[in-house]
Amino acid sequence: SYRVSLGEGALARFRYDPVIGWGRGPGSVRVTLRFPTRLSADQLILVRPAGYTFDGQQLAWSYDTPRQLQPIEFLMVVPSAWQALQAAQGAAAAPTATAAAHLALGRWYHRLALADVGEDTVLFDRYYAQAMAALSQARALAPADPVAPRLLADLFLRQAARTGAGTTYRALAAAALADARTAGDDSPELLAS
User: Fold this and answer.
1) What is the pTM of this model?
2) I need a surface site. Which of 14, 21, 92, 98 has the fewest CB within 10 A?
């Protein structure tokens, strides 16, 4: 039994290979990950391998034979970030939601969508559409604010890199950057693009 810190960021990733350290291999294995607070299943972004149980407080895998052992990996939104994301979702869902509320939510989704987790695209796949929706709403409500168009351009460029040549994402990014310029964004990196 040992403890692992969730870290300081919005995400926590854990990987454990139960095979390492066993000579012949055990007869059976149970691996349990306990969390300090109750989690929503939506906080779990990636859980491998399949066949686990989850009750909100812990993830558990049970193996009856050594041949079944596989590395365990999970990726989650940490509780403090999840609470902030939930608050941003609530503010943006309010009937009187402002552009700032949609922008705050869009920033959270943008941050999660573009988080670097190696080769996995699970975060981008999960949060890209949500980021686009929140940032598009912020842009529509406050067209004179250059922040939403810049973040949208960033997402379009990432999508262009993923989908390759022949897609319209680069043109969409250019249009969003033009909107940011029109809104008065004169930052050097924007002027160079």
Assistant:
1) 0.83
2) 21
